[in-house]
Amino acid sequence: MINLLDYAFIFSVMVIWTLLLYHVILSFLGFRYSLISEREKERFDLTPLNESSLPKVTILIPAHNESAVIERTLIAMGNLNYPKEKLEILCLNDNSTDNTESIARRTAEKIGKHIKVVNVPRERGKRGKSSVLNYGLEIATGEVIAVYDADNTPESNSLLYLVRNLLEGRGKIGAVIGKFRTRNRERNLLTHFINLETIFYQWTTQAGRWHLYKLATLPGTNFVIWKSLLNELNGWDTKALTEDTELSLRIYLKNLLIKMVPYAITWEEEPERLSVWFKQRTRWAQGNLYVLRKYFFPLLFSGNFMLFFDLLYLIIVYFLFLSSIVISLFIFLTGIMGLWRVNVEGPFNLLWFMAIILFILELGITLTSEPGENRLGNLLLGLLMYFTYTQLWILVVINALWQSIKSILKREGLSWYKTERAG
What we know:
Blueprint: H1 4-46, E1 57-63, H2 70-78, E2 87-93, H3 100-111, E3 115-119, H4 129-139, E4 144-147, E5 153-154, H5 158-168, E6 173-182, H6 189-213, E7 223-226, H7 227-232, H8 243-253, E8 257-268, H9 274-300, H10 305-336, H11 348-369, H12 376-387, H13 389-409
Parallel strand pairs: 1-2, 1-4, 2-3, 6-8
Antiparallel strand pairs: 4-7, 5-8, 6-7
């Protein structure tokens, strides 16, 4: 006789497979978009550049206790292939208690006057990235704003590719995002997993979505946006821990697009310790939960069904998909211990095996789009990743939900956690 657990099991299988198939589609479309992007990059490279038509760009680099990475970042900024007279780089020292300021000033002096180290006022600082970016926006003189995290080393043409796409889409495109890669991916098993995760995310959730229905999300680094648009939107939301996702929705509500440009590449440092990773990912999850609370009903009644569907995707991932994994895992363990078995007949062992194959297939397709990553070793790592790293996201979301509920009950704002750098 079918009972409640049986229905829960059937529901979890349906949710898991729906999302897996959706990601297979996105993986394939991401691969298609990689081919389109290669031709687009070639077109830009072959088209003569009229430097006089380029807008002035202000790069904002929020930096709080970034002494381990800030020198390398500023050197990379100095090597950007963009007219120096049209480039303003603001290293926003956010009340650092280490020697971030002295290292940044020493490095800036070696590179040129277009790099400035600005101390964020004490009353404006230590409130998170959004507050620092808003201060930078107030003093920026560029027509275009670019944002890079303090651990980022963009490739020399990255900014130029972003700006040229922004200019080409003027009136339709409000912002352009690039791709970020893991600089320290060879450090340990965790950084290998993160490398695969970021490749998968960018070629499916970013490139695949853009190719499917012209949606992408600001990643928090390596992107450009019109300053006039930012001013019109009143800058960044200081309550949002994922200020990039929140700002993305407001851009789309202005009927503007965010284009994904995978050939504009920056390299960044990822967490090398599990404790640092867990805190960072919890902050991301809390930030996305805040976005869900803020925009669910406004988008529901806005008439923008594609954007609401994209928000619904977040709900499916954070609630239905992860809860389905928990349910299926619980049923699997109780079945092994002989405490309960599925009363519904079906090829469930085959479905479980096929789910693993689909995951590896999705990963394999995305790795094909990424130069140098399409190798057997990464597929084997992906198999290990399926049973270990991806399961940790369950704990991340549970912790994020708990922290969010506590902050709501206590009527306190969410606390900002700055990711520790290893350098």
